[in-house]
Backbone:
């Protein structure tokens, strides 16, 4: 996963950005989202010695330690040293991890799960009456632009929620929602970056179809995506109004919109996001 410039990360390692004592955070499972979180936290002011990770593949551990200066540890050390244990393994890999974690849980630990579809109840059932906060982030956390939704488990207090909110605010925006909405969030913003990348990929292909060099097509589309995203985030103007401003009477854009409608792109998006939500539900049911 492309992240912040890695030498930049190393440069910040071990350097305190502010005087506040931060919790020690251990990421359990340092794959794509685990790396994105660690990279984002380093850039958000955490230091490498406030972070730990566990990873089952030694070569992956070495790669991350080289890149970020963060130590890879066994789960026993992670559970002992960290205040916050962030679970970032695939939902399919959750059971063996929780089995290992259960005897290591001591009072004062906070469990944060990033796993799609898995309920806080699952964690409480496997680990005991521990505070659990369920989070659905997304990969733009590597550039400090994540959208994360957080929900409290039965034993998570407002202080726990504040800790998690503070941690995630370093890497983007955070909203608190009822857990009943987290599978929808997963389908919308958790997977959302993939939909935008897919769209960009398809639009670049269209440039190739029209005979533009690939590098030029990429530049045109990526900058158009960046500019459009900035317009959406910088103003309160509804996307419909922004689109109408581009769509001139008897102009070019309306011809394109007619084709999008004809090919059912809006309906396809509704169905796609509903299917993603259904898969999140299914992932959760596998562990009931
Ligand atoms: N990739 C994404 O955009 C997002 C992923 N998520 C969630 O984050 C979780 C991780 O997803 P990815 O990072 O994409 O998967 P990934 O497969 O890239 O990373 C998972 C990592 O966990 C490691 N692992 C598995 N079991 C382990 C264990 N017992 N001990 C130590 N390490 C272990 C694997 O070796 C792997 O490196 C999933 O539950 C997913 O639903 C949530 C939001 C966005
Ligand atoms: O595709 C997945 O299952 C994960 C969850 C949200 C984004 N990626």
Residues:
């Amino acid at each position: 996963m492309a992240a912040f410039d890695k030498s930049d990360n190393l440069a910040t390692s071990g350097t305190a950005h502010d005087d506040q004592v931060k919790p020690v955070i251990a990421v359990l499972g340092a794959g794509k989202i685990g790396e994105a979180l660690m990279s984002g936290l380093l850039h958000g002011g955490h230091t490498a010695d406030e972070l730990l990770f566990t990873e089952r593949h030694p070569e992956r551990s070495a790669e991350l330690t080289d890149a970020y200066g963060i130590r890879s540890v066994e789960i026993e050390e992670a559970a002992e040293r960290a205040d916050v244990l962030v679970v970032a393994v695939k939902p399919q890999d959750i059971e063996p991890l929780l089995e290992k974690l259960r005897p290591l849980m001591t009072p004062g630990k906070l469990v944060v799960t990033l796993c799609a579809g898995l309920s806080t109840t699952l964690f409480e059932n496997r680990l005991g009456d521990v505070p659990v906060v369920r989070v659905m982030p997304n990969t733009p956390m590597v550039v400090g632009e994540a959208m994360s939704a957080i929900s409290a488990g039965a034993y998570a207090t407002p202080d726990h929620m504040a800790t998690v909110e503070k941690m995630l605010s370093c890497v983007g925006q955070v909203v608190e929602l009822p857990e009943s909405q987290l599978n929808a969030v997963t389908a919308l913003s958790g997977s959302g970056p993939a939909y935008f990348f897919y769209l960009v990929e398809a639009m670049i292909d269209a440039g190739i179809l029209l005979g533009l060099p690939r590098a030029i097509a990429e530049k045109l589309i990526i900058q158009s995506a960046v500019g459009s995203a900035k317009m959406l985030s910088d103003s309160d103007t509804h996307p419909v109004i922004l689109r109408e401003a581009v769509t001139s009477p008897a102009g070019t854009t309306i011809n394109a919109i007619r084709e999008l409608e004809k090919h059912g792109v809006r309906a396809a998006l509704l169905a796609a996001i509903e299917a993603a939500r259904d898969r999140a539900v299914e992932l959760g049911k596998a562990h009931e």
